[in-house]
TrEMBL record:
One Pfam family here: Metallophos
Residue intervals of the Calcineurin-like phosphoesterase domain: 3-186
Name of the protein in question: Metallophosphoesterase
Any one GO molecular function term: metal ion binding
Annotated keywords: Hydrolase, Iron, Metal-binding
Stated family: Belongs to the cyclic nucleotide phosphodiesterase class-III family.
Domain of life: Bacteria
Length: 263
């Protein structure tokens, strides 16, 4: 049994400071094997926000892997955005923008979907799809983690990241079984599976862990418990009017038949 915790859209600088300690306590209690930080670690990519976020992440005892979100690229300093868009991220969150994490027989491969030229929309880089496909472990569970979703529900009014659909088809064909994403600050897993378009990939689109934007409705993160072809999601939710996480919502899935089904 491997425990992967997905934490995304922390938005340090515009975050719920009162939720920091309850979040750290809940993470410590869950004892994950690996924590995946899905981008938008800061709100405006400013050095003080990066330092504050780094200090928070340093208090997580489990191994961490981080990838950039659009908010981790300078939004206002256009010179920095064009010429050294990931310098601050590399300095504070690791020199590699596309790390690979391993825990048990689970492999987590990050994509960098932040695009300095299309700040909100993002893109999947052609070379990165091939790199991930080359890293797929035929015997284990393969997870791709990135900031931007690879599929969006019809109600989403944001443009899908460039090359997202192509990436999803190719990753599914190559044996990637799970995709973790953030960015939309809205939970979607069953609704994406129900579209029937990519039955061999469980797309877990997680909401924001700490962002203070009231219209997000709640903060949340998810723990994946992976046991061969079986996967349990534990979704931990903190309503905006409560400084703590409630009893997690549990959902079980299996890909024993070759496609994902909720069981
Ligand atoms: Fe975000
Ligand atoms: Fe984002």
């Amino acid at each position: 049994m491997t425990r992967i915790l997905h934490l995304t859209d922390l938005h340090f600088g515009f975050h719920r400071a009162a939720l920091e300690e309850p979040l750290l306590a809940r993470i410590a209690a869950l004892r994950p094997d690996l924590v995946v930080i899905g981008g938008d670690i800061t709100h405006r990519a400013l050095p003080p926000q990066m330092r504050q976020a780094r200090a928070f992440l340093d208090r997580i005892e489990a191994p961490l892997m981080c990838m950039p979100g659009n908010h981790d690229v300078p939004a206002w300093n256009l010179v920095a955005r064009m010429f050294w868009p990931f310098a601050g991220f590399r300095r504070h969150f690791g020199p590699v923008l596309t790390p690979v994490g391993r825990a048990g027989d689970v492999r987590v491969m990050a994509l960098n979907s932040a695009d300095p030229y299309a700040w909100q929309r993002g893109k999947i880089r052609e070379g990165e799809i091939g790199r991930v496909i080359g890293n797929v472990d035929a015997m284990g569970t393969n997870i791709v983690a990135l900031h931007h979703p690879l599929q969006q529900l019809p109600r989403v009014d944001k443009a899908l990241a460039r090359r997202a659909s192509e990436a999803l088809y190719r990753l599914e064909a190559s044996g990637v079984q799970v995709v973790l994403s953030g960015h939309l600050h809205r939970w979607a897993t069953d609704a994406l599976l129900a579209t029937g378009r990519h039955p061999r990939v469980l797309q877990i689109q997680t909401g924001t862990a700490l962002c203070a934007r009231i219209t997000d409705g709640q903060n949340e993160f998810v723990l994946l418990e992976i046991d061969g072809p079986d996967l349990r999601l534990e979704r931990h939710v903190a309503p905006m009017d409560a400084n703590g996480f409630g009893t997690p919502e549990i959902a079980d899935y299996s890909r024993v038949s070759g496609v994902w089904r909720r069981v």
